């Protein structure tokens, strides 16, 4: 792995402030925009749409200085790579290019980091619910290796990965409660062990010893992966933003937030994608434009290519999820992260096309963990409800009730008692019907790349995805076969 430049925190409180800032920015989605960026090119340009425009001479980065805080209006900037989307996927791709090459990078978002699915994520960096040999297996394994290396690197820098990323080796429990589920769990443990992971099957008595708060019967058992980890999405994003911003002072990085992408800029002579037009800026990407816009990637690509001669359908759909966070929760102590066996099928549930009642697409399965701040995090729901992100209290009640089936101590408590000490996180997972992300160049537009559709595994697969995209842009050999994720054959 390339050497990593780390922006050192002067104190952990700085990071906490940044995380708090991320949360407050998430709340004030529509607030006005300012960002620390001063254009290398100060001219203003007319807005050009699609291929109708003529190719223009593009300014170089020259003596760029991004260290001042200057709100800017519609102006023109050139980078090597422009990334659309500041979720975990876009931000980690930026980081990988910044630390692993000398390219300049811009990240554009219609809102701010963590305003998409990333801000809702539970943070499981887990293998226990993955299937050896599946299309996403190698990418996930590689990605987890990179997360562990990053945590070690942070540690080697004299920082605490727990404070910086919310990184904890909690171990994971995939819990079964019927004789049929236990058969499947035993087979899963065998497969995971054969794939080289430390995996144990826990009988009901062993399970009770590992996680005494669980309700266990003779039909209970679990697959236990002691090396599975978790992170805190907000902490991790704050850290990655800091690393990326370190390169701003070197003239290699800029952020354009609250600035939705409107259209592509294509060369009239070669047809190559040269850049994008946002609501406020014209951004050229000399080497690549990467669309990492989560569940919005399909509609965005549709809009971007609407007047083009290219037929591309990225079938990514928003899959809404609720998480319940009970702050500083003392009534339940968890040793590990938990997930009910039903999660695996709940994750694989396919979209019923044409179903009028979206409520029928709702599924809830128990996940439970304790985060870095001592909050109990309970999940999760999955449903197809369009791009709506309103909290549905009836879903929260069902998440609570499901958790109480597994953790009897919760039955003595009423959710209404926690009304002041609870938060609900809602996010739209980028769902792909075939269950795997789409990563790679768009056929016919070789410098336009897609990296989207990670559904419930985007935090887990982020660093592997980032490495793959960066290697594609840099034309390096790939560490993981990208064929299962190709755009060709799945979107066109
Ligand atoms: C409840 C819940 C629990 C989860 N738990 C886990 C977990 O434990 N482990 C795990 O690995 N994953 C988990 N996930 C999944 C994970 O959060 C997602 O897979 C991941 O965050 C997707 O990241 P992303 O960057 O692709 O998308 P997002 O985070 O949604 O980011 C996409 C960004 O694109 C921007 N954008 C969209 N359109 C435009 C435009 N036109 N112009 C500019 N910007 C645009 C958006 O504003 C957004 O910021 C969970 C998700 C949910 C909802």
Bin the strand percentage: 15-25%
Q: What is the string of helix and strand elements? A: HEHEEHHEHEHEEHEEEEHEEHEEHEEEH
The distinct bound ligands, ions and cofactors come out as:
flavin-adenine dinucleotide
Count of DSSP strands: 18
Structural class designation: alpha/beta
**Major sheet, described briefly?**
8 strands, mixed
Q: Which segments are poorly predicted (pLDDT under 50) over 5 or more consecutive residues?
A: 1-16, 25-73, 351-360
Helix content: 25-40%
Shape: globular
The rounded distance between the terminal residues' Cα atoms is 33 Å
Mean pLDDT: 86
What can be said about this structure in brief?
The chain is of the alpha/beta class and 492 residues long.
Give an overview in words.
This is FAD dependent oxidoreductase. It comes from Melia azedarach (Chinaberry tree). With 492 residues, this protein is α/β, with parallel strands linked by helices. Helix content is 28%, strand content 22%. The protein contains 11 helices and 18 strands. The chain has helices spanning 12-27, 88-100, 137-156, 161-165, 179-194, 204-210, 233-246, 297-304, 342-348, 393-406, 458-474, and strands spanning 75-84, 105-108, 124-125, 172-176, 200-202, 221-225, 229-230, 253-256, 261-266, 273-278, 281-291, 317-326, 337-340, 363-370, 376-382, 422-431, 438-442, 445-452. Strands 1, 2, 8, 9, 10, 11, 17 and 18 form an 8-stranded mixed beta sheet that branches. Strand 1 (75-84), helix 2 (88-100) and strand 2 (105-108) form a beta-alpha-beta unit. The longest helix is centred in the N-terminal third of the chain and has 20 residues, at 137-156. It is globular and about 70 Å long. The chain starts with 11 loop residues before the first helix and ends in an 18-residue tail after the last helix. Flavin-adenine dinucleotide (FAD) binds at residues 84-90, 108-111, 115-118, 120-124, 260-261, 292-294, 296, 300, 321, 323, 379-380, 427, 429-430, 452, 454-460.
């Amino acid at each position: 792995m390339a050497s990593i430049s780390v922006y050192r925190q002067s104190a952990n409180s700085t990071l906490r402030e940044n995380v708090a800032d991320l949360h407050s920015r998430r709340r004030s989605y529509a607030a006005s925009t300012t960002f620390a960026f001063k254009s290398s090119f100060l001219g203003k340009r007319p807005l050009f749409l699609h291929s109708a425009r003529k190719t223009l001479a593009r300014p170089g980065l020259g003596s760029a200085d991004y260290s001042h805080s200057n709100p800017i209006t519609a102006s023109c900037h050139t980078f090597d790579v422009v990334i659309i989307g500041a979720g975990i996927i876009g931000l980690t791709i930026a980081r990988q290019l910044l630390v692993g090459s000398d390219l300049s990078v811009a990240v554009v978002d219609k809102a701010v980091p963590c305003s998409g699915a990333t801000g809702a994520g539970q943070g499981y960096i887990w293998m226990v619910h993955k299937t050896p040999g599946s299309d996403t297996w190698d990418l996930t394994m590689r990605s987890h290796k990179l997360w562990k290396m990053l945590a070690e690197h942070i540690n080697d820098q004299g920082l605490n990965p727990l404070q910086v990323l919310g990184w904890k080796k909690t171990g994971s429990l995939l819990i079964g409660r019927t004789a049929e589920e236990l058969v499947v769990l035993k087979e899963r443990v065998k497969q995971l062990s054969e794939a080289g992971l430390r995996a144990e099957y826990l009988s009901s008595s062993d399970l009770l010893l590992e996680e005494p708060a669980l309700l266990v019967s003779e039909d209970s058992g679990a697959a236990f992966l002691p090396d599975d980890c978790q992170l805190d999405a907000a902490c991790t994003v704050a850290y990655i933003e800091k690393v990326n911003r370190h390169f701003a002072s070197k003239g290699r990085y800029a952020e354009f937030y609250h600035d939705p992408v409107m259209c592509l800029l294509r060369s009239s002579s070669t047809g190559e994608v040269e850049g994008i037009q946002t609501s406020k800026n014209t951004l050229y990407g000399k080497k690549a434009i990467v669309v990492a816009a989560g569940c919005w990637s399909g509609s965005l690509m549709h809009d971007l290519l609407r007047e083009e001669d290219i037929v591309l359908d990225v079938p990514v759909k928003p899959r809404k999820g609720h998480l319940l966070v009970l702050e500083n929760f003392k009534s339940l102590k968890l040793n590990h992260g938990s997930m009910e066996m039903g999660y695996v099928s709940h994750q694989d549930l396919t979209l019923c096309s044409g179903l009028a009642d979206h409520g029928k697409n709702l599924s809830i399965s128990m996940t439970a963990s304790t985060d870095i701040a001592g909050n109990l995090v309970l999940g999760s729901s999955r449903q197809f409800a369009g791009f709506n992100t309103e909290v549905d209290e009836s879903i929260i009640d069902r998440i609570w009730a499901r958790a109480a089936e597994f953790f009897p101590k919760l039955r003595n408590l009423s959710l209404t008692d926690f009304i002041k000490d609870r938060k609900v996180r809602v996010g739209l997972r980028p769902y792909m019907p075939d269950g795997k992300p789409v990563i790679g160049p768009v056929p016919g537009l070789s410098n336009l790349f897609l990296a989207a559709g990670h559904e419930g595994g985007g935090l887990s697969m982020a660093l592997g995805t980032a490495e793959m995209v960066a290697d594609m842009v840099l034309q390096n050999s790939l560490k993981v076969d990208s064929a299962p994720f190709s755009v060709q054959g799945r979107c066109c």
